[in-house]
């Protein structure tokens, strides 16, 4: 019997998980043209994605088969020799839970190395692999946003002792899909923890979580603040897939925003109060 990725889930949470959603042959909802050839075109993807609602309000969905083992192997090969210390974004791309007013005046989107995040990352370009493009389309399909607004994907590596402290992904990112490329044994740390929702998710290979970062008025929904708990044993590989309010490329596939601009979730040194002067509400 497969173990549940939900840790310490009360009975009500287990019942909620029975509410399912599925996407068959996921394609971007706007009909954007995808790559049809190139590296990774032969790698099989999932034919059907099955999701379970693990929190109703705000809605958090767990996908048991978001990527295939073959896609994971391909992505990790793309990352070989490219790992760099993860950066954190200052400004309004995302907000740190314990941010201060002084730091909130920092330049929008500036990236720094911070002690709130100790993982390694690889920014995956839109055009470098059919698999990367196909997963971006999958993100658009399950979130209901356009492919143009899916940010470049960011692979993550957490080694023992590494973590990402409490943060919010930012009101500029109306939706997040967080993919667990590999799993960890129970008791090995690395859980994704949403304290306001009393929800903690164990890394299980090929699964993913999806949640929305904004309230209806476009401001940040701080109920979905979360943290990556320290890994105590093994290595956790994962991937950030963000939807931005701004197009990242046009419908023909031309990149509008460089992949290292604000492609990675991180700490914006900004408080919840300051965040209320946010950008206009995102279009859905």
From TrEMBL:
Cross-referenced Gene3D superfamilies: q2cbj1_9rhob like domain
Region named Disordered: 20-45, 256-284
Pfam families reported for this sequence: 2OG-FeII_Oxy_3
Cofactor(s) essential for the protein: L-ascorbate
Record SMART domains: P4Hc (SM00702)
Superkingdom to which the source organism belongs: Eukaryota
GO cellular component: endoplasmic reticulum
Protein name: Fe2OG dioxygenase domain-containing protein
Organism this protein belongs to: Alexandrium andersonii
